[in-house]
Amino acid sequence: MELAGSGKSDGARMGIKMSQELVVVAISVILFIVFSATLNNFLSQGNIIAILKNVSILGTLAVGMGFIVVGRGIDLTMVAVMVVGVAFSIWISTWGVDFTLAVVCGALLAAAIGLFTGIMVAIAEIPPIFATLAIASSVYGSGRIVFASDVLYAPSNIAWLKFIGSGTILGIPMVVVIFGAVAALMGFFLRKTRFGRLVYATGDNPNAARTTGLPTRPIIVTQYVLSALIAFTAGIIMLGLVTGIDTRLYNSSLIYDVLLVVVLGGIGLSGGQGGVRNVIVGTILVGILTNGMTILNFSYTSQNLIKSVILLGALAIDAIINPRDEQTSQSGDI
Amino acid sequence: MSDANIIELRNATKAFSRIPAFKNVNFDLRKGEIHALLGENGAGKSTLTKVMAGVFKLTEGKMTFDGKDVSFSTPAEALRAGIAMVFQETNLVPAMTVAQNLYLGEEKMFNRLRGLYIQARQFLAGMGFQVDPTAQVSTLGAAHKQMVEIARAVHHKARVIIFDEPTATLTPEEKSHFFNLLQRLVKEGIAIIFISHALEEALAVADRITVMRDGEIVASGDAKGFTRATIVQAMVGRTLTETLHGEVKRTARPYGDKVLSVENLSCAGLVRNSSFSVFSGQVTGMFGLVGAGRTEMAKVVAGLLKRNIFHGGEIRLLGKSVRYRVPRPAVRDGIVYVTEDRKFDGFFETMTAGENLQMGELTEGANPVSMVSLARARQLAREWGERLSLRQISDRARMIELSGGNQQKVVIAKSLIQKPKLVIFDEPTRGVDVGAIVEIHQLIGDLADQGMAVVVISSYLPEILAVSDRILVVKRGRVVEEMMLSEATEERVMFAAVH
Questions:
Q1: Does some domain include residue B250?
Q2: Is the Cβ pair A9, B348 closer than 8 Å?
Q3: Structural domain containing residue A84
Q4: What is the pLDDT of residues A25-66, one digit of tens each?
């Protein structure tokens, strides 16, 4: 009875995985060509840079979300942490605190929220979707009460913030460099470090991780702290680009765009699979799509509708490709 | 096709991702007979019956029911046709009452509970079952749950009822009641298949017996034509008779240091004031019926029970008092638990064998380096692959694609990499092919020879007798008897476990 594990079905599985990624890349290329050919302004230098800049906020958030999803969680607090963390920094800087120090304080606040979320998920064992949904509203609600205004502007004389917004390194916009750095760091973390392997293990089978004696709770808590810090980083990118933060962004569909990127890129919601490469692929597709629709003058509502339908389709495909429990459980026991 | 047969399987094969659970099986069930299906763990009995009950579909071959070709896609379809299956773990809804379970799925739009109870009471009384229809199923014992399952099958006008190990959790009195019941069902023209590990039951009750081994039928015929010896021979084949049935006399290994001592341990209702010790250089077997509390004792020791239901007692590891609330410190201190349900908490299914082994290495007791490499995972897979003769594992095959035997070996290797002082194997050969069973038993012996303290929990008596130097018998949450290998016989151990 040793017929198991020959290379063939392994190859077939990889084939499915690969093709999911390849399909996304192919669709991106096709969309890019179609938009370039049909839309006047699409291929202009200004527009390409606009795509890249827009994508860097979404992509940075998606790196954090992808990191959580690999560990079989979900973090709906990201947008709330982003807007409240950054708004908090601006708010305390208006008291006369040095802006850089204020940003550090904002990062600490974000980390503290992440720590709280992690404890709720890992130790109180609240399912992450509910825990993060509730914490997101609480964080946003507290922020609105404290800050008293919806839009907060950064001081205009901060050199490093201007550099993030409009500076370049080797001709690449700084915001894209930051997104790339976050993604590269996360990729290294996930693939090469013990911590990264433990995240995959926890996502693959939390019970086995626990029984094996892995520190599952500290892993989960650390994950949420890191994703909160990544959300804060995305907020700083946004602050650099538009010099202010609109806390009402929490009410937009941004968090669903982030999920769309993660699922579309091919990170299974059942955990333990995928990586930063999937996030990048998903980010590019969603970036091109959004930009094209904006140039085509689609209304905000119809854009959301289209993206929701795509998200639903991607989730359905994910459920078929990466089934949790039922189907996989039949093949192990003879 | 003969009129006497209600179910026929011809050249039937069922494979899970190309691993056949059984192949080319021809099987007949006659009308109104009791047919015992015997075989070792993993022989394919459960899968064979699950195909008949519509849980799985045949990969190849055909099945006829009452003269017509059938292929059920769901258990509900099979039930409608007249084949009911009573599973090992019952399929009742615990939060509902007996009557609600009985009529589950056929509730009227406006459901009157009182009418339901009256109807159920009459129905149960008609079958001679003394079960209160208003009782919640979760409050019933194993025997009563089984009665409800049977009543449900009869209510659905089943013409074939399949039982998967119906007697494993029953007391002797309940068993005799159960067998009387089977006779009554047969008188009503219902054909019965029951899977069992207990050969005496099969010989006493069944009209015909079929024995499976490695997914094939190796013997089939009238029960009168079989004896215990011929069944055992058919079940285990030639390879196992020596190691599993003690024909080669072993001498027990001597006592080493006392590694673990448990005193007056209690937790929830599962473990009651239990005391025992485990010594190094020796295999301690823990035998008991399903639900006796063996697994729970092991899990308390290894820190695996999720909620704090510890009700007192003391656990000493090498003389030092310990109390683990999560497995991590237990693993660090050298206690590892090899799970009975490897799918649930044994391995990481999307990872390769090597990556699984690496997870063992990354725990604190072993070698928690902060940088990892795939090369190391492959190296571990090669090293342990040789040591445990893992066969045909490609570097990239995911765990889920391996056979049960290989999966189990990887789970064991993952634990051994953690450099344990005490290894607890819970049902180490469940769902494992015969060749791997022998190898795993040898490995367990080798570990004891190397001076490790080993505990083997098993519900399979021959396994306990084959590997243990000392046997602890567990009954109702307590270690009730301790015997050395030389004093142990199947009869003695079983006697202690059931009475």
A1: no
A2: no
A3: 45-250
A4: 888 888 888 888 888 878 787 888 888 888 899 999 999 999
Examine residue A57 and state whether it is found in any structural domain, yes or no: yes
B430 & B337 share domain: yes
B410 contacts in chain A (CB < 8 Å): none
Chain A residues with beta carbon closer than 8 angstroms to that of B298: none
- Say if the Cβ atoms of B328 and A213 lie within 8 Å: yes
**Between these two residues, A201 and B292, which has the higher pLDDT value?**
A201
**Domain limit, last residue, from B244, B276, B292:** B244
Q: In this structure, are residues B293 and B342 in contact, taking their beta carbons and an 8 Å threshold?
A: no
Same domain, B211 and B332: no
B-chain residues within 8 Å CB-CB of A212? 327, 331, 359-360, 363, 414-415, 418
Q: Of A223, A184, A202, A173, which is closest to residue A270 (Cα–Cα)? A: A202
**Same-domain pairing of B282 and B175:** no
Give the nearest chain B residue to A198 (CA atoms).
B359
**Hey, which bits of chain A come out as E strands?**
151-153, 168-169, 172-173, 244-246
Contact flag B397-A330 (C-beta cutoff 8 Å): no
Can you give the pLDDT at residue B242?
A: 46
The range of the structural domain enclosing residue B445 comes to: 258-498
Per-residue pLDDT reduced to its tens digit, A153-200: 888 888 888 888 888 888 888 999 999 999 999 999 999 999 999 999
Determine how many CB atoms are found less than 10 A away from the CB of residue B114.
9
Averaged over B386-390, what is the pLDDT? Answer: 82
pLDDT in tens, B98-121: 888 888 877 776 767 788 888 888
**Can you give the CATH number for the domain in which B402 is found?**
3.40.50.300
The whole-number average pLDDT for the span A242-262 is 88
**Is this prediction's pTM over 0.95?**
no
Of B195, B208, B225, which is closest to residue B40 (Cα–Cα)? B195
Q: Is residue A216 part of a domain?
A: yes
Which of B188, B222, B244 is a domain's end point? B244
Give how far B485 is from chain A: nearest CA, Å: 31
Residues B310 and B405 in one domain: yes
How many domains does chain A divide into? 1
Checking B144-147 for CB contacts under 8 A at 24+ apart, the result is B145/B90, B145/B92, B146/B86, B146/B90, B146/B170, B146/B178, B147/B181
Residue of chain A whose alpha carbon sits nearest to that of B350: A204
Q: Are residues B281 and B203 in the same domain?
A: no
pLDDT at B491 over 80: no
- Number of compact structural domains in chain B: 2
| Tokens standing for residue A214 | 């892995």
Pick from A316-325, B75-84, B165-174, B271-280: least confident: A316-325
Q: Three-state DSSP class for A42?
A: coil
Residue A256 lies inside a defined structural domain of this protein: no
Residues 6+ apart with CB under 8 A from B62: B9, B10, B11, B12, B69, B71
Q: Is residue B253 assigned to a domain?
A: no
DSSP state letter for B217? E
Query: Do residue B484 and residue B392 come from a single domain?
Result: yes
DSSP secondary structure letters along A57-126: HHHHHHHHHHHHHHTT---TTHHHHHHHHHHHHHHHHTTT--HHHHHHHHHHHHHHHHHHHHHHHHTS--
Q: Which residues of A touch B358 (CB under 8 A)?
A: 197
Same domain for B405 and B457 = yes
